[in-house]
Amino acid sequence: MKTDAVIVGAGPAGLSAAIRLAKENVAVIVIDEYYRPGGRLLGQLYEDSSLPDGEKEWNGKEIANNLALEAESLGVQIFTNTIVWSVKKGWKVEITGAVKGTISAKVVLLATGSMEKAMPVPGWTLPGVYTIGAAQTFTNLHRVRIGRKVLIAGIDPLSLSVMTEMKKAGIDVVGVTLPPPFKETGNYLTPIDALRSLKQVIDFAPNRLLRGAGRTMLGRFDRQIARLLRWDLLNIDGTPLHVRKALVSIEGEKEVEGAALQNVSPDGELIGKPTHIQVDAVCLSGGLYPSMDLAQVAGCSIVHIRELGGMVPLHGPDLSTAVEGLYLAGNITGIEGAKVAMAQGKVAALSMLNDLGKIPSQSVEEAVAEVETARKNSPITFLPEIETGRKKMYERWREQHNERYDNMSV
Known about the structure:
The chain is α/β, with parallel strands linked by helices. The protein contains eleven helices and 22 strands.
């Protein structure tokens, strides 16, 4: 098969890029291993306070369907249930699954998204243990309740967002607690860390007074607040937030029957004896990291930037890489929301159009400015220091290249 552009990943970034390219009469093939296009959009269903009254519901499944339909109406070919196992300069993209063979292309965009971090804890292999992303997909996409009484381990923007979604679906979420306090897993979170992460979702607070108080106090009096919260004073919509308790084991013979929690000090040290609660499902939320394996295969340099989520392919503000004809967009560049991913997809598409010798109606610089607007309007910030991470990436890129976009942000 031959085409102008191959996009790996049919999520918000990949579909947005495909639409922009197809509007300029570029032949595009989009490949995704899932059975339907949409990526992480498919599991998203929440109220977005940045949207106008009457339009505040963010229905990711509906948005994904609309993007896929628009792409296909423009002639984009979308191969689902198909895995990319090799990307070679030239460009040769090897695929297997529902569609098999080799695709030759002039340019390639990797929009492979992110993956969930593992959270090992005694009992985590029992039936009834889910990652928070899987729980979100079951709840919002498949309309399946993962349990009757559910405990969430991990206090972060994603877990709190999914908690509200599960409650709307009629699931009894009995509490949200700290993750297992095992430093070796990389998911170690102290009560002070948890309070700082709460600041990223303060707009989800049920009333204006709480939102104002949260913005004022969180980040300034975290240690003092952590000391007070030994009495479990915080809750969201009736669900307790146990910022001074951590999950230490999941219990059950053949399936989840309960969980053991243990008190922790403000600095995250275990204290006292474990207590036991009855639940039939546990969700583990250890955070996300960029899915950059194919970028490595394609020859990209990989750098570690903690503020972006860990190991990230080196790229410029126009989302190009040092490998000619290879571009990135979405969570592979750093963990952010769907709005940012869609805006990045357009940036990458414009850069690819320049590479293909076409003159787009919009400049890359203008599209980059739209990414900044999307970032400011995103209801959830997954990584609190994302802007610092973007600056670090740009600095590393500039060290290795004669950067021509000196005034552009990342």
